Amino acid sequence: MTEINYYYWATGLTGGGDGVLDSFDGADLNDGDPAVAHDHDTGLVFFYSLDATSGADESSPDIIKPDTNAGLKRWIRTNPYGVDAATFLGLADTDVTYVGQAGKYVIVNAGETGLTFSGIIAHAASHSDGTDDISVDGGAFA
User: Fold this and answer.
1) Angle at the Cα of 110 from the Cα atoms of 107 and 113, rounded to 5 degrees
2) Is the peptide bond between 80 and the residue preceding it cis, with omega within 30 degrees of 0?
């Protein structure tokens, strides 16, 4: 028998109340069922796909576990555009961490294939006061 995927609409993420994402009975959910949840606390809208074999620990808003008959089923947050770009670091063409990037700027990389962080090292210019260089160290003028 072929599984039928149903769309689920939720008025929140967790808490078990009527209409929130974790209130849908796991026994009624099929692998790949999509869901849209509007989190009234934040005003954000999230998109999910049910993974029937995930078993991951709940971590709202990314992973939601049904309160009833969950087994290994988990709602996994997805991006409706097929790209995990909820944050800058989620983009496929960017650095993977903010560590060590404080005070830097986002620029196109040397290969012109993605984005990266960079600090401005020096800028040579001719100014009316006779100075030529402006140095920037970690985003602060030196």
Assistant:
1) 80
2) no
